[in-house]
Design goal:
The chain is of the alpha+beta class.
């Protein structure tokens, strides 16, 4: 994943493995709809395993029309970087990503997926991806419980 890296205590990057849990279309509103615009969205839920050290829960949001342009890719193809898929299949490169990090009470879905208790303090990283002509393209949330590994801030 391009914007998420962790290192061990010696400064070596830890391997990242991604598994897709679900892909769902929705009309539900939230921070993603405010950012992306439009009326229907696709949420791609994934688990990001960082070496054998920790797991993150990922929600990656796209407008439904952008996702439809991918032509029904199999789930295993979404285990790589979603931004690379959008560039390759739709010619929509991610040219800029705004990132925010904060701590929030762990929501239910991420807590269940990570085997943690809902409501406990959670790391949240929000990523807003922009493409050509500064058009909003993707919205992503990454959740995690506490971790000791070094998180590398990538710009």
């Amino acid at each position: 994943l391009r914007y998420v890296r962790f290192q061990d205590s010696s400064g070596k990057d830890l391997a990242i493995y991604v598994s897709v849990r679900a892909v769902r279309a929705t009309k539900q509103k939230g921070a993603w709809s405010e950012f992306l615009g439009g009326s229907t969205y696709v949420r791609i839920e994934r688990i990001v395993s960082v070496g054998a050290h920790l797991e993150l829960y990922s929600e990656f949001w796209l407008r439904e029309e952008d996702f439809a342009g991918l032509g029904g890719l199999p789930h295993h193809s979404m285990q790589k970087g979603m931004r690379a898929l959008l560039d390759k299949h739709l010619s929509l490169p991610t040219l800029r990503v705004d990132q925010w990090i904060r701590f929030v009470p762990m929501p239910g879905a991420p807590a269940r997926a990570l085997g943690l208790e809902a409501g406990q303090p959670a790391f949240l990283m929000e990523l807003c991806g922009f493409t050509l002509r500064d058009r909003p393209l993707s919205y992503q949330c990454l959740y995690s419980g506490p971790f000791a590994e070094r998180f590398v801030v990538v710009r």
